[in-house]
Amino acid sequence: MSKIIYKDFKGNSKTIEVENGLSVMEGAIQNEIPGIDADCGGSMACATCHVYVDDKWFDKIPKAEDAEVDMIDMAFEPKKNSRLSCQIIVSDDLDGLQVSTPEKQT
Amino acid sequence: MKKIDAIIIGAGPVGLFGVHQLGIKGLKAVVIDNLDKAGGQCIELYPDKPIYDIPAVPECTGEQLTTRLLEQIKPFKTQLFLNERVNEVRKDNENWIVTTNNKKEFIAPNIIIAGGVGSFEPRKIHLKQAEQLEEKSVFYAVRDKEKFKNKKISIFGGGDSALDWALELSKFSKITLIHRRNEFRGAQHTLMEIKKLEKAGKVSIKTPCQIESLESENDLKSITIKFDDGKTEKIPTDVILGFFGLIMKLGPIAEWGLNMNKKTIEVNPENFETNKKGIFAAGDICSYPGKLKLILSGFHEVALASVECFKRARPNEKYRFEFTTSSKTIQDRLGKK
Lengths: 106, 337
Ligand SMILES: Cc1cc2nc3c(=O)[nH]c(=O)nc-3n(C[C@H](O)[C@H](O)[C@H](O)COP(=O)(O)OP(=O)(O)OC[C@H]3O[C@@H](n4cnc5c(N)ncnc54)[C@H](O)[C@@H]3O)c2cc1C
Ligand code: FES
Fold this sequence. Notes:
Radius of gyration of chain B: 24 Å
Strand order of the largest sheet of chain B: 5-2-1-9-22
Number of domains of chain B: 2
Bound molecules: flavin-adenine dinucleotide, FE2/S2 (inorganic) cluster
Mean pLDDT of chain A: 93
Strand order of the largest sheet of chain A: 2-1-5-3-4
Strand content of chain B: 25-35%
Oligomer: heterodimer
Helix content of chain B: 10-25%
């Protein structure tokens, strides 16, 4: 279990214990965190699980592969610290990870 | 309006296999889809990726699966209505009437919703003015090239569609190609062609930047883009073309009075009927305890729904369970001698 902090675009945050091995997207869906749609169920085909990763954490997460970067192009208001939460796998190293959800996903 | 036995909404793998399951029971169906081709997610999202969990098919791509399903339902000569989005469903005694965005109407005692995660629609520019100018000077697809002749065109996107149209339209228009990253993702030779055109001054490329605003007086005059370093630039523009890929939008399905659970429709897992008699849901769009969003599950679901469809379409006949290997009737329907 690792703590993941989900912050919405208004700044409200929720801390959830997510099982290691699950994705940050799955942690959100299983705990009914709003702001993450995940229409394609984690197959990197929809970009509706888009999050902004806290700057402190961005470089600690394994880098995005090309296909993810391409998909982020399709997301709503992507920024430099954009990632697809279905591609971030929770582990002890990410204990305390903070991500923010965009205003909307589509 | 000709009456049929079942209207299938969605030409994804589940809708297509639905045609088969209805067809071998002697029922006539039509299939309606918002996309310009059959195959749903398989054809739109992963045509070239291999699938490994279709029973008895160790490996096939999304496109191959679609081609084989179309082949399998050929004997039933079912009409596919593409580029049509179902907007409305209403009751007419024992039947249902379905209306599309192009005002086509269909009537049947049964509807099978195999709508996946919703209909595929282009992602749009999130600016109010862009919405107002849509289909006038803001487009997300090129249907008629003539409209784009001798214009100042700003094309957004970094993939194949953006690059291909930049090349094509540069033959008779001034193109600005705008993308949020420096890297474009497209066929190597297309990229080289674009670079050549940039040198020749036919295409100008702006990266990394995003759209900031549109300026218009009735017609579009210019757009303002913002670079990552905060600088902005105004670009005289008559037409915007956006290629940001497709998104699945549940859309009108949510308004048909069906019991929904988030973006899915609740069904009775015995026959995949929804809370409305004669409306069924199968595939990714249905939900029941233990639902798996797999093609395999969708096939099972639509097979069961087709039995209930038979009972409603042929109230005076008895449903007989039959195997395709041994039923003469089914083999006749499949055109096998
Ligand atoms: C990248 C990726 C990989 C996958 N890999 C696998 C795999 O290996 N194995 C597996 O079993 N599954 C896999 N899946 C899941 C599989 O593709 C889906 O379960 C399957 O496509 C669901 O089929 P469907 O027919 O229910 O819906 P879809 O394929 O989503 O088709 C629904 C269709 O309905 C249309 N539609 C919706 N609403 C309307 C409307 N109002 N009017 C008109 N048309 C409408 C849509 O345009 C769409 O074409 C994968 C999915 C993705 C994205
Ligand atoms: S859930 Fe679709 S890309 Fe992550």
